[in-house]
Amino acid sequence: METEKQNSPNTDKITSLVKIINEHPDNLHQDYTPAVHELIDYGNEAIKAVLPLWNSDDIWERYRAQRVVEGVLQQKLGWKAGQGYPKDSNGEQQFLALWKANGNYNAEASEEERLASIQKWKDWLTENSKNGK
Q1: C-alpha distances in angstroms, 47 versus 29, 36, 83?
Q2: Which of 61, 62, 117, 122 is the most exposed place for a label (fewest CB within 10 A)?
């Protein structure tokens, strides 16, 4: 699977996945749905699409949007399902540092804290799109 699929042709698909992000939650992990898993494969485009959900009134929607962003970033840093990060990698430390630098988002945080983190991630996306990442 690619971490970053090509731009514009994915817009409709990403939009449709965001609309169904709350459908069919995993029985053991309510914060994961088929849409969450699929969105992760769309990279930064998916991050941009789910950031508004970080301030949803529905906490489960916030959790699911958070899992998308976490999944995209973890994939970018080498994480693979069923394997984790490569043994020689500092991917987990990079992820945690990046998360903290961009507001340490928590779905249970106050609206003010969530909005501040959303803005930091928007800025991060803008900067990374300039750098082609």
Answers
A1: 21, 11, 23
A2: 122
Domain annotation covers residue 97 = yes
Cα→Cα distances 52→55, 56, 106, 131, 132, Å: 6, 7, 14, 23, 23
Tens digit of pLDDT for each residue in 44-99? 999 999 999 999 999 999 999 999 999 999 999 999 988 899 888 899 999 999 99
Report d(CA 122, CA 117) in Å as an integer.
Answer: 9
Examine residue 63 and state whether it is found in any structural domain, yes or no. yes
Residue 10 DSSP one-character state: G
Q: Is 27 part of any domain?
A: yes
- The parent domain of residue 46 ranges over 8-130
Query: Is the residue at 3 inside a domain?
Result: no
| CA of residue 26 relative to chain centroid, distance | 18
pTM, two decimal places: 0.89
The angle that helices 43-50 and 59-76 make with each other, rounded to 10 degrees, is 160
3-state secondary structure of 84: strand
